[in-house]
Amino acid sequence: MTKPGQSWPPTDTEPAVPHEDAPAPGSKLGVHYSHCFGCGDEVEAGLHIQSSVAEGPVVVSQFTVTEAHQGAPGLAHGGLLACAFDEALGSAVGNLLRKPSVTAKLETDFVRPVPVGSTLHIAAELDGVSGRKIYVSADGRLDAADGPVAVRARALFVTVGFEHFTTHGDKDALHKFGVSDKERPKDWDINP
Ligand SMILES: CCCCCCCCCCCC(=O)SCCNC(=O)CCNC(=O)[C@H](O)C(C)(C)COP(=O)(O)OP(=O)(O)OC[C@H]1O[C@@H](n2cnc3c(N)ncnc32)[C@H](O)[C@@H]1OP(=O)(O)O
């Protein structure tokens, strides 16, 4: 675990420079997969996170906590909050760098309770890249972009080849992600 005060990223990194085809600041980001628990519109009890690109290597996301997301009565489950951050951090990595990547490590600090009915405003920022390793962190603020911080997270994503998804998951994964064979060389950095 990263201890409070420990430097982040934990190793020397290069700046994370958005891909030339990354959506511009202000762009709303769509659902990357309709059955994704984080953002998918076909998962009734899912998190239905909505994200858009902000200035800097930053993606902002909103997650509204419903009764389907409770741990204690009236309060969000911590594991689902971690899920929300995984999605928000992954969205920053995937959309800005356009490198297929997976979460290798995810740390969360739960600072305040998050009640049902509240909306977490999550700002995820790319902190640096070291080879295949991408460091990214986020703050989640209660009910407003400048509200009190409720959750903080840091993550390491590792760039993988597209075959990670087709080998370990669904052989049709790329089409389900909406990435056609024709698009791959142009729109994605596929040489991790
Ligand atoms: C438009 C699109 C939107 C896209 C929007 C997408 C949003 C989706 C968000 C959800 C994302 C997910 O939940 S993804 C699902 C959850 N994650 C997973 O299922 C990943 C499962 N794990 C794996 O498949 C593997 O362990 C990998 C790929 C992470 C790494 O395996 P590998 O490829 O063999 O590489 P490996 O050599 O082990 O690791 C590479 C480097 O990372 C380091 N490393 C690896 N794991 C760790 C670790 N836990 N902690 C520290 N360091 C680590 C290694 O030391 C090494 O450093 P060095 O020696 O190079 O220095």
TrEMBL record:
<dbReference type="InterPro" id="IPR006683">
    <property type="entry name" value="Thioestr_dom"/>
</dbReference>
<keyword id="KW-0276">Fatty acid metabolism</keyword>
<feature type="compositionally biased region" description="Polar residues">
    <location>
        <begin position="1"/>
        <end position="10"/>
    </location>
</feature>
<feature type="region of interest" description="Disordered">
    <location>
        <begin position="1"/>
        <end position="25"/>
    </location>
</feature>
<keyword id="KW-1003">Cell membrane</keyword>
<keyword id="KW-0963">Cytoplasm</keyword>
<dbReference type="GO" id="GO:0005737">
    <property type="term" value="C:cytoplasm"/>
</dbReference>
<keyword id="KW-0472">Membrane</keyword>
<keyword id="KW-0053">Apoptosis</keyword>
<keyword id="KW-0809">Transit peptide</keyword>
<keyword id="KW-0378">Hydrolase</keyword>
<protein>
    <recommendedName>
        <fullName>Acyl-coenzyme A thioesterase THEM4</fullName>
        <ecNumber>3.1.2.2</ecNumber>
    </recommendedName>
</protein>
<dbReference type="InterPro" id="IPR052365">
    <property type="entry name" value="THEM4/THEM5_acyl-CoA_thioest"/>
</dbReference>
<dbReference type="InterPro" id="IPR029069">
    <property type="entry name" value="HotDog_dom_sf"/>
</dbReference>
<feature type="domain" description="Thioesterase">
    <location>
        <begin position="74"/>
        <end position="139"/>
    </location>
</feature>
<comment type="similarity">
    <text>Belongs to the THEM4/THEM5 thioesterase family.</text>
</comment>
<dbReference type="GO" id="GO:0006631">
    <property type="term" value="P:fatty acid metabolic process"/>
</dbReference>
<keyword id="KW-0966">Cell projection</keyword>
<dbReference type="GO" id="GO:0016020">
    <property type="term" value="C:membrane"/>
</dbReference>
<dbReference type="GO" id="GO:0016787">
    <property type="term" value="F:hydrolase activity"/>
</dbReference>
<dbReference type="Pfam" id="PF03061">
    <property type="entry name" value="4HBT"/>
</dbReference>
<keyword id="KW-0443">Lipid metabolism</keyword>
